[in-house]
# Entry
Amino acid sequence: MPLDRRHFLLQSGSAAAVVALFGQSHAAPVTGRGRTATAGHALGFTAVPASLRDAVAIPAEYEWQLLYAWGTPTGIAGPMPAFAPNAGNTADEQALQAGMHHDGMHFFPLSVPDRALLVMNHEYTDEQLLHADGIKEWTAEKVRKSLHAMGVSVIEIRRTARGWQQVRPSPFARRIHGNTPMRIAGPAAGTPLMRTAADPAGDQVFGTFANCAMGVTPWGTYLTCEENFHGYFGGPKEAAKDMTDAQRRYGTVPGSQWVEYWRFEERFDLSRHPNEPHRFGWVVEIDPFEPGAAPIKRTALGRKRQESATCTTSKDGRAVVYMGDDARFEYIYKFVSKDSIVAVTDAPQAPANSRLLDEGTLYVARFDPDGRGQWLELTHGRNGLDASSGFADQAEVLIHARLAGDIVGGTKMDRPEWIAVHPHSREVYVTLTNNSQRGDAGKPAPDAANPRANNLFGGILRWREDGNDAASTGFAWDHFALASDPAQAGSGARYPAADADMFGSPDGLHFDSGGLLWIQTDMSGQVIGKPAYASLGNNQMLCADPATGRIKRFLTGPNGSEITGCVVTPDRRTLFVNIQHPGEARDDGNGTPVSAWPDGTTPGSARPRSATLAIRRRDGGIVGT
Ligand code: FEO
Ligand code: CA
Ligand code: CA
# Structure
């Protein structure tokens, strides 16, 4: 295992490996804005037109292959249950199969050539598709199956003459889900708001769910982010009146639940266990190279509807994590560790890094109208965060990070989603997906960073830290793109190049090692193909070259799907992409999912399934060229 981790770090040019090799504390050379390793060839592929077809479309020079769909067996030994096309698999079987609704994902090469681990999130469940008879009636078994269909998959894959294949069984294979035991660490662990009847110590919890985007640490672990956890907690409607402002701010209000877990598993009943939701909404660290290691919730990074946790290093070698809180008018955060990353040369040094995310400083971003910005510290006893503003200690600041962000004056954003750091310039890009309530009565007005009222299409904002040091407290920012269809009157679209392909509701964001930016979209199934959005087609993936500002459409997805989760291999020959929730939208007439992808060709002919694709150039060349 240590050998595999070291191999991964070397392959990925990670800070921890570079420190080990050269004794330097700052890995990436700073070469100015937007240098690409493939100048002259970047974006050489044939652009794909916007499409409303129920299919995956990519440039003719490329091919895609289905790798890992919902229900695919996943385990360390047989027998592994096959996927039942009628959704007849039990809850226990689902715990040994790929989850639903694939999202954030990363590729960890192993030390054996052409072998790697692929680690991915399963964000949420479509209960109608998950159960053979839908959810007219909830049962305890359905609650368990639903919990087992979220979380994370770790699979081993190998490259063969016929493309990438899952290695099955594999000693690394693992499903982490909504009932997996895990640890809570950092300043909030064990504090009063984290204690429950089942866990009086407040430092152990069952499960992670609502796992959206992700991050990868410089020491080779995977970070999964708990986003819309609130939808799984519920309770009797009449209990709503007893909820605190903090509970309302996080959306954990009885009667507003998405699922009926609370009727069958009492920890989800807010009226009986008000502290249980405090144990969700965190960044969770998973060591994919150690299948026996329990995942750890890192409370020092703050609680929110955690979208992403993108890691980089400061000039003096500390870990820096950028995070978005995906809800209307919520914040962008940064965590800077107290200690520096220790070079991972062998196993005994790894434990030092395993505590890095437990101690440090959390900040929230303020974007000023002059193109400058400030990171505002969320530390108890500073910036007005004390008992007089309702925070007894640092644990409460972290558990209610949103409320702390209000006190210090962070900028309320248009739904921050993924964050990506340019591998050479170190500029930081964030997708702001949309905000239909910007400028509404009683809501925040447009501001410099979020300039459009009724922002239906979102955009991409970027910043550069002062001194190009990720630990700086000041930065300069601008917009990379304001998305929309420029042909629409008053669209406010602003793309970095005149010939850019248009898009809407950007969400997934990934820089490959050459500096190409992969952009994925998540327009809601209710609006796809409808007025204002019709010209954008189905959800899509584009490739941008920040050096030139060009943006080209690379992929369009099946009906009702979102494109999310993206990683380019270190050799840049394969691109892994997740197709999430094909057929999420239903036919207005008969309620049939609008897609049968990937197993059927016409709606209704098969149960649609989220799935991972492996995409390569037919000539074996670099993807994105
Ligand atoms: Fe899970 Fe905000 O997308
Ligand atoms: Ca997302
Ligand atoms: Ca999304």
Remarks:
- Residues 2-11 form the longest helix (10 residues).
